[in-house]
Design a protein that fits this description.
Two copies of one chain form a homodimer. Chain A has 336 residues and is an alpha/beta fold. Chain A has twelve helices and twelve strands. Helix content of chain A is 43%, strand content 16%. In chain A, helix 7 links the parallel strand 3 and strand 4. Chains A and B meet through helix 4, helix 5, strand 2, helix 6 and helix 11 of A and helix 4, helix 5, strand 2, helix 6 and helix 11 of B. Chains A, B: Keywords: DNA-binding, Repressor, Transcription, Transcription regulation.
Chain lengths: 336, 336
DNA sequence: TTATAAAATGTTACCAATAACACAAAAATA
DNA sequence: TATTTTTGTGTTATTGGTAACATTTTATAA
């Protein structure tokens, strides 16, 4: 490995001078700069980040801690995050918590040890508070995306669950539905709570009496919708829903799969709508009506806020960025 | 930040003893080990990776350098890679080259500087040789996935383009197609070359005279299929293809979009098949007939080979892992 | 009981880069 | 020309951890 010492020797200057050339810091005569730069090129010198991190206490590495990169929502988040990080001269570490608190906790320790400068995180749930406290204790800045955590005041980039829910439900109501089921995510995740709250509020506003029997909480990523769907289908005609509002893309897809297995046609017998597009490549075979969140921007903005914190340019008060969803109406909710 | 010196002082031992406890190396009496471990917990000590990297010359960070995480193929690769890396105690850096040689080159420099222990890479093309040489010069082990590079002898995890192509084409031929167009990726990417070679070979074996007019090379990820599709469609009836073999998922989707714009129905007027599933969530609205490659395993195996190299446990000769595709026949190629 | 081996712990130097300070040479000012 | 300021460059110490060697303590054998 080529070090500044090798350069220094060959250029007949001190290592410090080389360091100054590399970092463009301090005063350097044009002559020495050129001489040193020439040798740097010649020997193919690349600075050693470990040594730099050790003295500077910054690694230029950020971490993206999400639940699962294979969820297209987070795929796009990751892409946005990586683009912004690259643009700002940072590298990005990828971690998948799978919505598991322990995995998240393991990663947090690993990340601290790795010396990341900051963490962009979609927390597994409210219990992530413990892991965030660990970050705080270690003075590692973080920004939350998609989900908030009770009792943690920090920079946020989140969607607008209320308006997304509202537009989806109003669309269903306009289509003539009044018995609308909610298959929600876990109650310990803020987005699920917000969507549920919005669900009841909007039904009330529309003069529709909500029925607790029609709502349920399941995982955002494990496939356990089947039982719930079966239950809904086996309700007596008078109570059986004609539409399902799935809290995310994954639930929606599994719901549709279950419905098909049960010979319930979508949308003819059952409309389905959800949050977040399951299709990473836009506009191919579009089927699901949904509230598309600007996932790329979640990542992009998140990294932007994070770097502001890392570099200490952020405002004193925490920033809350709320990105509105876009409602896309497609076949899964259209009465033929 | 808590260091081994803090622990040492509080435990009344030398820093070296603490280091030994942390790393479970050397001989330590049970008594001291317990004493030190207690204080480590108490002070919440987490080792500083920068310092460790500096002495040990290894960072426990690997890099995944792919073309685009939003391509579902690479999304799954990334997930497999991250899972294996985590399991082996490594962290994973994510980089998207967008099939651009310069971006790839920038990343390679960044990665070397970051001190990654190894790189798992889907090279942008044959010209990536230059970037790989940089890695070699810096003694950074790497493994290539999905694509080979002429003139670089290294560990590989690749698919089987020949058999995938063969099965797809035989399926089309069995469906009665004889005028089959190939919309291929760039000729400087090994997978494209292999698929083209297989295409001609298999047509020949089937006694079908191949027509150069029916083959073309476009980007694997930019949407520039439209002109090509238009040309194919405007061929005289006698020459116009009845099926299109798209070299990857992205091309296939854009091809179908173009066909729809041109009012050509798929599969009624035109069958379409391709490599790689564009759908990250399995079995939802499946439409495309394709050769599905075990993307997750590309990443998983790739990291496994890479870590073998990094840790010096690998065999002397380079390893070539070839993962066969699975043909999935769906609607896009079925004559109704 | 002493010599010797083994086990446990400590000391020193080093990894690559940089901050902080020191100092010489050149330029500006008196 | 002498003095001050500025500019350019060098020296030393530090960052957190560990390898290599040194030393002390304990256990074992003679």
């Amino acid at each position: 490995m080529v070090t500044i010492y090798d350069i220094a020797k060959k250029a007949n200057v001190s290592p410090m001078t080389v360091s100054r050339v590399v970092n463009n810091s301090g005063k350097i005569s044009e002559k020495t700069r050129e001489k040193v730069e020439k040798i740097i090129k010649e020997l193919n010198y690349i600075p050693n980040n470990a040594a730099r991190s050790l003295t500077l206490k910054q690694s230029k590495i950020l971490s993206l801690l999400i639940t699962d990169i294979t969820n297209p929502f987070y795929t796009k988040v990751a892409r946005g995050a990586e683009d912004k990080a690259k643009q700002m001269g940072y590298r990005l570490l990828l971690s998948n918590s799978d919505e598991s608190l322990e995995k998240e906790s393991e990663y947090v320790d690993m990340l601290i040890s790795s010396g990341v400068d900051g963490v962009l995180m979609a927390p597994a749930g409210d219990e992530s508070k413990k892991n965030l406290k660990t970050l705080i204790k270690n003075k590692i800045p973080f920004v939350l995306i998609d989900r908030q955590v009770n009792g943690i005041d920090c920079d946020l980039v989140i969607g607008d669950s209320y308006h997304g829910t509202r537009q989806l439900l109003e669309h269903l109501i306009k289509q003539g539905h009044s018995k609308i089921a909610l298959i929600n995510g876990p109650a310990n995740i803020s987005t699920a709570r917000e969507r549920e709250k919005a669900y009841f509020e909007i039904l009330r506003l529309a003069g529709i009496e909500a029925n607790k029997q029609l709502t349920s909480n399941i995982s955002y990523r494990q496939n356990d919708s089947h039982k719930v769907v079966k239950n809904l289908i086996s309700l007596p005609e008078s109570k059986r829903p004609t539409a399902i509002f799935a809290a995310n893309n994954f639930i929606a897809i599994n719901t549709i799969k279950s419905l098909r297995q049960l010979n319930v046609r979508v949308p003819e017998d059952m409309a389905v709508v959800c949050f977040d597009d399951p299709d990473p490549i836009p506009d191919f075979n579009p089927f699901l009506t949904l509230a598309a969140q600007p996932a790329y921007n979640f990542g992009y903005m998140g990294i932007q806020l994070l770097i502001e914190r890392v570099e200490g340019n952020g405002p004193a008060e925490k920033q809350r960025v709320i990105l509105p969803p876009e409602i896309i109406i497609r076949n899964s909710s259209m009465r033929k």
